[in-house]
Each structure stands twice: as structure tokens, then as C-alpha cells.
Amino acid sequence: MDERVREHAAVLVDWSARIEDGDNVVLSVGPDAHELAVAVAEALGERGANLLATYSSGEITRAYLRAHDGEFDENPAHELALVENADVYLSLGGGRNTSATADVPGETRQAYNSARSELREARMDTRWVSTVHPTRSLAQQANMAYEEYQTFAYDAILRDWESLADEMAQMKALLDDGSEVRLVSNGTDLTMSIDGRTAVNSAASVAYDSHNLPSGEVFTAPYATEGEVTFDVPMTLHGESVRNVRLEFEDGAVVDYDADQGEAVLTEIIETDDGARRLGELGIGMNRGIDRYTDNILFDEKMGDTIHLALGRAYDSNLPDGESGNDSAVHVDMITDVSEDSRLEIDGDVVQRNGRFRWEDGFE
Amino acid sequence: MDERVREHAAVLVDWSARIEDGDNVVLSVGPDAHELAVAVAEALGERGANLLATYSSGEITRAYLRAHDGEFDENPAHELALVENADVYLSLGGGRNTSATADVPGETRQAYNSARSELREARMDTRWVSTVHPTRSLAQQANMAYEEYQTFAYDAILRDWESLADEMAQMKALLDDGSEVRLVSNGTDLTMSIDGRTAVNSAASVAYDSHNLPSGEVFTAPYATEGEVTFDVPMTLHGESVRNVRLEFEDGAVVDYDADQGEAVLTEIIETDDGARRLGELGIGMNRGIDRYTDNILFDEKMGDTIHLALGRAYDSNLPDGESGNDSAVHVDMITDVSEDSRLEIDGDVVQRNGRFRWEDGFE
């Protein structure tokens, strides 16, 4: 086994999920994530955790959803009981075709997701972490050779997380103290309120309320959004290429939108429910191990010199205890490049300009 | 997709597990059973069942068990809650190496199994069915080419189960009404009491208390065994080849035994406990789709023209309510060919001769 696979498993189990003796762990395994699953199972055994592996296959999901009449039972009791009794939920992505569910009708997907809200909430009550095993399918999506992609992925995953967490703490402090954020860039002039919200220092560990590996972003939950934004980083949503999405906000909600490509998918997302028209997340990408776009949101949204916004559900971790934020069946991240002709202001002070932060050399 | 895979899924879902709208189904998927899992997911979707897929990999189990200190938590709550809230548990076997766990220490395996007894019982309280997807690894174990093995497996699985169930009902009636069975063949002259015992018509459906696909046997729980028996069908026990086992019974218990090969394994089994010296099962193989030995007990014990006996534990389904049969930590099936020079008598009447049953053409 490639030693990096074992290192990945160790980071996931120790730094990210903080596994301890006796933890009840659900390990969700993609069809091509087998090798990482073996390394994680070894690490879980060493630490005395209890392992149940589930199988997460786009092809199985597609077959099931296409055959179903669309009247889904809400939160099936067996799956809910599993997740409610789990301490930890580790998701090892890695399929054979990132478009495996491309021909599932949008309304079926929506009905399925809507019927599973308690399941999602229960999963988010665990110490959940999502990661991916670098597969040939992901390499292809990134337009990279397989070994090139492995190097890219492990550069992003096998970081000095402790020191990145210290740097990101500075951005968190600025967002926590601030009331209003303004983002200005090509095709973008957007203001959002963040007053009363708490930023998450997403350092790829549940100890930081951070649930992705790799991570490396600081995010909060904005509201009262006004203005327009252009997302110029390419993306794939529901298996379709989407390019240059433009959103216009009034009173916190999308009032107009278009896209150079994939507008139908965008419509599907925005019309899911009321919350899908509002922002759930503002995130600042700070993982410079991720130096290029690879058409995979897990990596792309953490890329250094980018900022992303999500339509849909807000994370409770950004909200005061007991307060609920924007609610939706969806959470769809979209990314904009801020490396040039760009500035991020908090209450009128520029905190990032052309990709450099105010505490860095080169910021002016 | 090979149409036989879809047919296999339909038999499993409709005939075997009797899936209905709203059933909560756990689908346990082996690493190479993916294609069957896709077909089963499609069938489950059509019927409106709720699907959770688990991943059953010998390599993951091996890594976990070898890394663990052996002090296993009993019946982990998340896995137990899953199974207790499931209506149906479908196991799709199909790995890449039938020896994947060969180097797991025996005591670790035993400790793991002992810690999971409630889990096993909970699974047996569901409408559980075990089947296998024909894989290259199983083809290798059977000494067959892959496509040859597929043909063999689907011949065994895709039967007219309703008509086989009707035929097997005749054998069940004879065993239920009978008091004493005598089996005479080369190297075999054995009498057993079956008075008061109930035979199971194992027709590959939970509706018949039958949980294997393929199945195709009628079995009961004999006692007071006298005489000698030779098992001439090859087998693998505890990973060792065992050939031509001969057992001699007095007063229901083995008093002498030998084997041409693997006698040490036989000794280990017989010396496990008191119950391991007594029979727990008499089974009559009636699936003529299975026409040869493939070193896989799921198929071998159902082979037409064979009879098998098991040393060890009897099944409750053969016993009057509340009565307990032979008890043991083991249940080891051994098979004898009855296609030639052979007869099976119930209370002195010949019911099978040289493989033909009394209700068949060619029986004399």
C-alpha cells in the first residue's frame, strides 16, 4: 500500500475525527475508495473503535432512484437508527464516474433529499468528516493524469493542519468582530450582514467544527444579501457543467440569475424551496496546497485566493445557540476567483486584496 | 447488464425476501457484487422499499481485526439499532479472494464473533436472505472458467422455485410422517430417528423459512443415529481439504472415525464439545440445477442426488416449540453422493433409489 494512503487514514482518524476507544463509527465507502477504507479500518481497529461500513455508490443510487415512483418514505427507521446511534460518520468518496447519477430526474432527486432531512440532521450531530480517495475518475474530472492527481490530492490533504489552523484563526477573529462584508471583483459587488454570526475556522477537524478533509477555509453564515455576484470558477452540479453563474440579490433573496452554461440545473436548485434562494455560507479559501481548480467542490472551495458562497442551508455552527439560520434541502457552493482586481472588506476595512491577506507580506 | 443479473435480483427480491412497499432493507454488498447490487437496488426502488447498502469486504475485516487488541465491545449500538429496525437483510456475497481473512488469528475471530451474538440474533429476526454474485474468485474456487461458472451459478439460482417447492413438499410430508430413516450406499448403512421432528422445505424463500438463494433441500434434525456413513463429496473445512470421511455411530454419537485426507481437522471438529459428536441435520439435496461440487457449501449441500448430514447444532425450525435439539458450537455439513447403488428408506419404504424419488419416472 502507498504510504500516503496510511498517512491519509491517520490524519482522518486522529486529527479530523478524534477517534477514541469505543466510538461507534459509520464508514461510508465509495466503490473505488476500497484501499483507503482498508487503511482506515486498520486505524480504527488499532484505536478500539467499532466499525460499520456502508457502501456509497452513484450507480446504486441511480438505479434505485430511477426505478422509484418518487413517493419516498421519510427518514427510514433503520438508517435513522444507525446514524442516531453513531458517534462518528466518516465518508470516503471515490466512485468510478463522477456523472454516475446524471440521468436521475431532478424532481426525483429533490423528493428523495426532502424525505431525508432528519437523516441529514442526525448525521450532522455526529463527529462527521468527508474526504475522498484520489481515484482515476477524479483525476479525469480534474484533467490530470492519475499519479499527477494523487500528488495534487495528497498535497491538499497531508498538510500541517495545526499551523494552518493558527493562521485561519486571524480571519475568524475578523469575521466574528465584523457586522458587514462587502466583496468587490469582476462582475461582483455584494454586501452581506454577518452581525451576530460566528465564523468557523475550518481546519479539517471536528475539534474546530470542521468536517471536510481537506479543508482550509474560514466560513460564516451571511444574511440580508444585496447586490450581484459572478462565479467564474467552473463547476459541475448534478452532473452538469455550469459556467459563469450570475446571481442578483434583493432583501437577502435571489431575484434574478443566469449562467453561460447549465442554467437549467441552476433553476432546479433555486426552485427547490424558499431557502434555496438565500445564502447559507460565505467561505474564504485558505488552503494553498490546493493551487488549481479540479472540478471537485471538496477541493475547489478551499483553494487559496478564492471565495465561495452557498445557496441553501446554513450550518448551525455559525449561529448562536438555539437560533436557526437559512433552511433548505440544498447547500450548493459556487466559487469566485479573487486573485486579481478584487477586495474583501469587513465594515469598510479591506482584509484581503488580490488574494493577499492583511497579515501577509505583499498586502497593500 | 447481463439479463441474468436482473433475473437474479427479481428472484431475490420477490420470491426469496417477499419485498413490499415500505420495507426497510439492509443490502450487504461484497466488493465484486456491485453489478448485482445495482440490479437489486433497481428492483427495490420499483417496489418502494427503503434501501441502505452496507459494504462487506474481507480485506476491511482483516485489516480491522488484525489491528484490534481483541477486547471487542459487545454488539455495538449503531449496528444493532440498524439491524433491529430493518425488516429485511439481504447479503450479496462476492469478494475478490475467498481466503481474504486467512491470516486473522483464530482467537481474534472467535472473540469478535462472541461479542456479536445479539447482532446475529437480530439479523435472524429479519426476513434475511444470503446469496452470491458469481465472481471470478468463486469461479477459481470451483476450478471453472468465469463464464462457465456464471452459467453454473445461474442454473442453480434461476429455477422454477414454485414447482420445486411443490416437489419438495412431498419429501417434507414423508419425513414429517416418518419415524426412522435408513440410508444405504457404498460404505454407508445408517439409521436415524426423526420421530417428532418437522422437516423444512427449503425453497429459497422466507415464506418457507428458507434463507439461502440458491436453496433446494429438505432438512430435518435426526437423533439416535446408529451405523456407519461415508462422505465421498470433497470439502474444505477450516481452510483444509477433507476427503472421504467415515463416521461410525452408536447410541447417537460418533464412536469411531477416519478420513483419507484432513483427519486432523475432523478430530478438531469432533472434539469441540459433546454435541459435535452427534448429528444436527439430515438434508436431502433436490436442486438439480446444481450438478457438481464447487467447494462452496451454499451450492454443494443443495446438489441434486446428494444427501448431507451435519455434526453439531440442530435448527430450532425442525423441533417442536420450546424443545431444544442437539446443541453445539459447530454445525459442519458433510455430503455423500446417492446417485448410484444407494437407497433412502423411511420406516422401511424406499423413497429414493439411485437418486430418483418415488414420485418420479424411472423409480423402481
From TrEMBL, chains A, B:
Gene3D superfamilies, alphabetized: Thermophilic metalloprotease (M29) (3.40.1830.10)
Keywords: Aminopeptidase, Hydrolase, Metal-binding, Metalloprotease, Protease
Necessary cofactors: Co(2+); Mg(2+); Zn(2+)
InterPro entries for the chain: M29_Exopeptidase, M29_N-terminal, Peptidase_M29
Gene Ontology process terms (BP): proteolysis
Family, as annotated: Belongs to the peptidase M29 family.
UniProt-recorded name of the protein: Aminopeptidase
